[in-house]
């Protein structure tokens, strides 16, 4: 299928395929927009059923990055990369270096960093071939390193803002939160929520992670099928996308959905279903921008970690503005965010097309 015929294609500026016959690397970079600056977004290492699935994923994720970077007020456009791996979800050093050379051919038009499946060590290998990489070990006190803890901080600020707005509560003491997926972001989020006095329910396909988070933060394990349907105040999807559809939304008991996972809504119309059900949804690409804020500060150079923290904390205010506008205009929060994001990412012509 041509990329132009893909349902996820939305006037992306460039889509580049890379095949390195020596290492066996197969990768795709999608640049959605360079309107605000170089396209920035992580590289996902994943085992896709076929190439069309990889193209769909990279197109959706790249558009999401345009919106995320614009809403976080960063001087960056949106792009994303995927490395198509085997079922073991590993990339060899040769493949990572080949990926670095591929990124380098774009001359800085695309800046890569970690996403699912990639580590700081992997990015260091990529960086041996190109300067257009972030998420590298930071100098003392400076921005950089694994973006996940900053993403978790942003989600924590977002949960506080949503709780203040929907439940009129300033404290998280005794708040019940169910976290789906306790990987890099989810586990860091659990730490902050626990420190703030929240009660945690957690689920993950990795039983060891569940045990660790239960031991460390007094969380209760819950089954994979039930975590989003739990009788809690907040659900925080921090694993996969497309977890909220008509079926799940009809069974939700929480008042708030606020988590890190990208593309949580199976389709845009699911935002309307949440709104109609009186459930406050914190748009994913607004609440999960902490990591890219860190990446942008690292890439800009000479920015302190303290400045990153101040900018990540602004995610709460940004969400509050969306919540207020949603209530005023009687429109779902995802629609308010999308319209704002299209305007500030130079895609306002697309507003009328949706
Ligand atoms: P991760 O790979 O470290 O953690 C994901 C966790 O979800 C793993 O522990 C995995 O076992 C678990 N999981 C997978 N399928 C599951 C299922 N069906 N039910 C329950 N748990 C399941 O990934 P990370 O970095 O923590 O990211 C989490 C989400 O947040 C992803 O959707 C990612 O795209 C998104 N995100 C991450 C950012 C970052 O800075 N790491 C930035 C913005 C978004």
Tell me what the structure shows:
This protein is of the alpha/beta class and 354 residues long. It folds into 2 domains: 12-64 and 76-127, Rossmann fold, CATH 3.40.50; 148-288 and 317-344, NAD(P)-binding Rossmann-like Domain (Rossmann fold, 3-Layer(aba) Sandwich), CATH 3.40.50. It contains 12 helices and 12 strands. The protein has helices at residues 51-71, 93-104, 120-127, 148-167, 184-195, 207-217, 246-251, 269-276, 284-287, 290-300, 305-329, 333-344, and strands spanning 14-20, 25-33, 39-40, 43-46, 77-84, 110-111, 176-180, 199-203, 220-221, 234-237, 256-257, 280-281. The strands form 2 sheets. Strands 1, 2, 3, 4, 5 and 6 form a 6-stranded mixed sheet that branches. It has a 6-stranded parallel sheet with strand order 9-8-7-10-11-12, with helices on both faces. The protein is globular, with a radius of gyration of 19 Å. The relative contact order is 0.13. Bound molecules: 1,4-dihydronicotinamide adenine dinucleotide. 1,4-dihydronicotinamide adenine dinucleotide is lined by residues 116, 147-148, 151, 180-186, 203-206, 209, 224, 238-240, 260-262, 288, 291.
What's the gist of this structure?
This protein is α/β, with parallel strands linked by helices and about 350 residues long. The protein is about 40% helix and about 15% strand. The strands form 2 sheets. Strands 1, 2, 3, 4, 5 and 6 form a 6-stranded mixed β-sheet that branches. The protein has a 6-stranded parallel β-sheet with strand order 9-8-7-10-11-12, with helices on both faces.
């Amino acid at each position: 299928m041509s990329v132009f015929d893909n349902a996820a294609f939305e006037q992306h500026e460039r889509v580049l395929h890379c095949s390195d016959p020596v290492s066996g690397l197969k990768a795709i970079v999608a640049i959605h927009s360079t309107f605000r600056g170089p396209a920035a977004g992580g590289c996902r290492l994943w085992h896709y059923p076929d190439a069309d699935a990889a193209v769909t994923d990279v197109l959706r994720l790249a558009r999401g990055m345009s919106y995320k970077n614009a809403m976080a007020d960063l001087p960056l456009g949106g792009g994303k990369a995927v490395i198509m791996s085997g079922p073991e979800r590993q990339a060899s050093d040769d493949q990572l270096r080949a990926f670095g050379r591929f990124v380098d051919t774009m001359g800085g038009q695309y800046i890569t960093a970690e996403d699912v499946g990639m580590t700081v060590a992997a990015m260091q290998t990529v960086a041996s071939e190109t300067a257009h990489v972030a998420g590298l070990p930071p100098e003392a006190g400076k921005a950089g390193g694994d973006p996940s803890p900053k993403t978790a901080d942003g989600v924590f600020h977002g949960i506080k803002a949503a709780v203040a707005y929907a439940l009129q509560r300033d404290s998280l003491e005794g708040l019940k939160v169910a976290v789906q997926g306790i990987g890099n972001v989810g586990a860091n989020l659990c730490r902050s929520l626990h420190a703030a006095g929240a009660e945690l329910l957690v689920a993950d396909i990795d039983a060891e992670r569940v045990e660790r988070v239960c031991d460390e933060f007094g969380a209760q394990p819950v089954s994979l099928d039930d975590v989003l349907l739990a009788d809690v105040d907040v659900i925080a999807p921090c694993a996969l996308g497309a977890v909220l559809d008509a079926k799940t939304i009809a069974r939700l008991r929480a008042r708030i959905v606020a988590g890190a996972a990208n593309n949580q809504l199976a389709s845009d119309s699911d935002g309307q279903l949440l709104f109609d059900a009186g459930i406050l949804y914190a748009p994913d690409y607004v609440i999960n921008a902490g990591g890219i804020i860190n990446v942008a500060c690292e890439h800009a150079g000479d920015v302190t970690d303290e400045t990153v923290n101040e900018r990540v904390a602004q995610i709460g205010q940004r969400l509050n503005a969306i919540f207020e506008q949603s209530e005023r205009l009687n429109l779902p929060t995802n629609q308010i965010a999308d319209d704002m994001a299209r305007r500030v990412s130079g895609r306002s012509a697309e507003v009328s097309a949706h």
